[in-house]
Each structure stands twice: as structure tokens, then as C-alpha cells.
């Protein structure tokens, strides 16, 4: 073997890696780092985080990338700091300020006004995403159109803010800072909540800081920094544990397990939505969904 060649690494087992994303990296940057750390090209992420945001980022490794589009990640929790007083071009601290703070408007931001504003943005609401979001407009991302100098007007869409709680208020000469916890449906833009709250209360607002603490069933408790992953490049959850954490479980007998591995339909389990099918030995075989009296495989994870 020449000095230029290196022995090929054995691919890692399939599963999920829960990363505590650092500030300043895109989700794609994190995927690139984890590909190198884990020694495989087969790495994907479920749900992006903006470069300025930190916290839970769910990555699929090897065959577990097939799970990513099916994971029940429809609820997310964030710790955020919102600045009232000035809007920015990106609705967050990375954008350019649009005008100067209105001191009279800021002085009128009472505690009662803050609670009323937060209440108006809680529950089932219609939200216009940030113009620099990843929402597609005629096939192109909104942020790409904005960077190209286009004016982008996005339509409001229904989202649910399950929890919007105020943790602390700080009153600065040029802004009012709010520390909040937000529990919301997938597709909710916390930047847009900051923009709209500031617009209602103080003539403008933007997001100062954002940390995602949960995505579906995955939390910071199982998340690791990239540095920790470098030291110990191992899965957070193997394939079986990942499916058991994110989906209802359906155990089948040997005969049914074999049918699943061949992609055949099996009797319905009577479980709503997508569920994991497990063999008698505990291996996960597939994700399946009932269709009348039978179940069909959504993804076969252990083909025959």
C-alpha cells in the first residue's frame, strides 16, 4: 500500500446522531463535519437550523437516512431572545437594521402590553414566513430570491404556537429584550414571531438569539457537541432505538417478519399513522401504515 492510500473505514452502523449545533454553522456544514467524523457519505439532517441558532439537530446515518422524512418532528421547543424596537432585513440579528428605534414607542411597551402581544401570537395563528426563509417561491428558495435583489411577498400559512411564555424582560435605552420559551408546530418561524411581536408593540422587532431544545421526541439531553462526537464517534441511538423513540411499535411473528422483509403486505396492526415493525429478535424491519385490513411498508429497513 502506497503512502498516499489509507485503509477504507468500515461504515458505521445505521442510526441517529443528535447534535448540539454550534452558532455560526449551517445545517449543511454540520452534515459535512459528521460525514468526516463518522466515516460515511450517507448522512442527512431532519429540519434545518439557521446559522445563528444553536441546539438540537437530528442527523440520520447510513440506512437511518430513510427515516428522516417520516420522523414525527411536528413539535419543537426553543429558548429565544427577542429585541423590541428595531426591525432588520432578515428578522434576526444577522440582518441590517431598518431605521432607528422609536423611544416613545419603546416607553409605551408596558408589561401588560407585552403579555397581550404574546397572547395574540399564541394558539392557532396565520403566520407570514420571513422573506429570507427556505420557503420555495416558483421553485426557488425565498432567501435566494432576496439575495438576488428581488422583492418577495410570502403568503400567510397556519401554524400552532402551543406555548409562548415570557421568562425575563430587560429594558435597554434603545430596545426591550425578552427571554421567552416557545413550543410550536413544525413550520413555525420564531424570527417571524419576533418580527410580528415587535411590529405590534414597538414599531419593529427581531430575533437576537435562538436555541432549539427539543425536536419531536429528541432533546438536548441526548445531544452532543461536534467536539464530543470527534472524541467518541458513535451513534446517539441505533436504528432500533431511533424507531422505538419516534414511532409506535408493532411486534410480529417470524412468518410475518419474513413477509415484511420481502415487501409483502401483512395484516393491519390497528395503529394510527406510521409505526415500526419489529421482528421477534428485536430487529426493526420496516416502517408501515395500515390501509384498510392490511398494512403496507412505507420504508423497508431490513430487506431479505
TrEMBL record:
One of its GO terms (biological process) is mRNA pseudouridine synthesis. Residues 1-22 are annotated as: Disordered. One of its GO terms (molecular function) is tRNA pseudouridine(55) synthase activity. Gene3D superfamilies: Pseudouridine synthase, PUA domain. Residues 191-231 form the tRNA pseudouridylate synthase B C-terminal domain. It catalyses: uridine(55) in tRNA = pseudouridine(55) in tRNA. Residues 35-190 form the Pseudouridine synthase II N-terminal domain. It is an enzyme of class 5 (isomerase). It holds the Pfam family TruB_C. Its EC number is 5.4.99.25. Keywords: Isomerase, tRNA processing. Residues 247-301 form the tRNA pseudouridine synthase II TruB subfamily 2 C-terminal domain. NCBIfam families: TruB. Responsible for synthesis of pseudouridine from uracil-55 in the psi GC loop of transfer RNAs. HAMAP family: TruB_bact. Belongs to the pseudouridine synthase TruB family. Type 1 subfamily. This is tRNA pseudouridine synthase B. It comes from Amycolatopsis cihanbeyliensis. The gene is truB.
Amino acid at each position: 500500500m502506497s503512502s498516499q492510500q489509507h485503509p477504507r473505514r468500515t461504515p458505521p452502523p445505521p442510526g441517529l446522531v443528535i447534535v448540539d449545533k454550534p452558532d455560526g454553522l449551517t445545517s449543511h456544514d454540520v452534515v459535512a463535519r459528521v460525514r468526516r467524523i463518522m466515516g460515511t457519505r450517507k448522512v442527512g439532517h431532519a429540519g434545518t437550523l439557521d446559522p445563528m441558532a444553536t441546539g438540537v439537530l437530528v442527523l440520520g446515518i447510513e440506512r437511518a437516512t430513510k427515516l428522516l422524512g417520516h420522523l414525527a418532528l411536528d413539535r419543537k421547543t426553543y429558548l429565544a431572545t427577542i429585541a423590541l424596537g428595531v426591525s432588520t432585513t432578515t428578522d434576526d440579528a444577522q440582518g441590517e437594521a431598518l431605521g432607528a428605534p422609536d423611544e416613545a414607542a419603546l416607553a409605551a411597551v408596558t408589561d401588560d402590553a407585552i403579555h397581550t402581544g404574546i397572547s395574540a401570537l399564541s394558539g392557532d395563528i396565520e403566520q407570514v414566513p420571513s422573506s429570507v426563509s427556505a420557503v420555495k417561491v416558483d421553485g426557488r428558495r425565498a432567501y435566494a430570491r432576496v439575495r438576488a435583489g428581488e422583492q418577495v411577498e410570502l403568503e400567510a400559512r397556519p401554524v400552532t404556537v402551543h406555548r409562548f411564555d415570557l421568562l425575563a424582560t430587560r429594558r435597554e435605552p434603545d430596545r426591550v429584550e425578552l427571554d421567552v420559551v416557545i413550543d410550536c408546530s413544525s413550520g413555525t418561524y420564531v424570527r417571524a414571531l419576533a418580527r410580528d411581536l415587535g411590529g405590534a408593540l414597538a414599531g419593529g422587532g427581531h430575533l437576537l438569539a435562538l436555541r432549539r431544545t427539543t425536536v419531536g421526541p429528541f432533546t438536548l439531553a441526548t445531544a452532543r457537541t461536534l467536539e464530543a462526537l470527534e472524541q467518541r464517534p458513535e451513534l446517539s441511538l441505533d436504528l432500533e432505538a431511533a424507531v422505538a423513540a419516534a414511532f409506535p411499535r408493532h411486534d410480529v411473528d417470524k412468518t410475518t417478519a419474513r413477509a415484511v422483509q420481502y415487501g409483502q403486505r401483512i395484516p393491519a396492526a390497528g395503529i394510527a399513522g406510521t409505526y415500526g415493525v419489529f421482528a421477534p429478535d428485536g430487529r426493526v424491519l420496516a416502517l408501515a401504515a395500515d390501509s384498510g385490513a392490511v398494512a403496507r411498508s412505507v420504508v423497508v429497513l431490513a430487506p431479505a
